[in-house]
Fold these 2 entries.
Entry 1:
Amino acid sequence: MTRLSQKVISWILLKGENLEDELYGFEKNMLLDVKPKSKVLEIGPGTGINLKYYPKNINWIGLESNPEMSKHIKIKIRKQGINANLLNGSAEKIPLKNNSIDYVISTLVLCSVNNPLNVVKEIKRVLKSSGKFLFIEHVADEKGTFRRVIQNMTNYTPWRFFSDGCHPNRETWKIIEHEFKNVEVKKYFLKNGGFFTWIVKPHIIGKAEK
Ligand SMILES: C[S@@+](CC[C@H](N)C(=O)[O-])C[C@H]1O[C@@H](n2cnc3c(N)ncnc32)[C@H](O)[C@@H]1O
């Protein structure tokens, strides 16, 4: 059954698509330039906002745990004409074979999963040895900063409900660096976005190979 917070986040993400494109479009255009005909698994595709950034001739699999998102994703699949297979399930247990995927994509998802370490291990399992994990994630600010103090408190505020379980204080780069061999990761701060994005300004963007 769909939770109320899943309906709320689906609405928020849909309404925020223009802002999200403004904030991440440049980075996504560079990062999501995957090879033609490759098999791409995107975990937590949300409303399907990333579909327009891929080349059309790929085989895309979306694994989304919020059933409320599927209608939005299906509209984008039709619009982009991508060969797509949408699965409802969790990235904590990816229903795909070992070494079967060319690229796994995650944008703003590892903040929301229950156990990011399990998810990163699952990503590694399904990637081919030549495969790549491509990610953009918002992450914890440095310890001792005012923002980090606020990030640490969000679990006890309505943030948790309205973001459907997003944890802004995760040091996600540490998990990726621990699990993968060749990791290229860059930390950066969102430049725009105003008041509502202040808490999630610290980001990482990168690629990893197993
Ligand atoms: C903040 S949204 C980001 C959506 C999209 N990737 C984007 O960049 O706009 C996080 C998404 O991850 C999904 N998600 C959370 N936990 C998940 C899990 N364990 N497995 C698959 N998807 C998950 C949520 O339902 C939501 O669609």
Entry 2:
Amino acid sequence: MERWIERWGRNPLPGIHVYYWNTRQELVDSVLSGVRAIEPGVEAKDTQLVRSLARTVLTFGRMPLRGPFVPREEIDEIIVWIDAGMPEGPD
Ligand code: HEM
């Protein structure tokens, strides 16, 4: 999101959905504009989190809205991490 804030010179509007997660659990529980970001048993590539970053989500377009978008290599890293069970990194 730093890239987005730098590009647009403002913080994203409050109240749409959260824009970052401080812990693994926050992401596990995350519901963005009424849509669960990830769900148990759903492969990473099919989660709304990954779909939103890679293509479009519902009718809203690719996230973060109007870019700059997350590069494909970073999306692939997210996919590998989710499918590995979202291991906690070192502190
Ligand atoms: C389940 C996945 C997601 C859903 C359903 C979702 C939904 C939405 C909706 C409904 C909007 C407002 C659209 C509008 O104003 O026309 C929005 C805006 C936005 N979303 Fe998402 N989103 C998702 C994932 C993400 C992710 C993963 C990010 C980045 C971390 C992100 C970043 C943003 C940003 C930056 C905006 C624009 C806020 C502004 O203009 O101030 N979204 N999203």
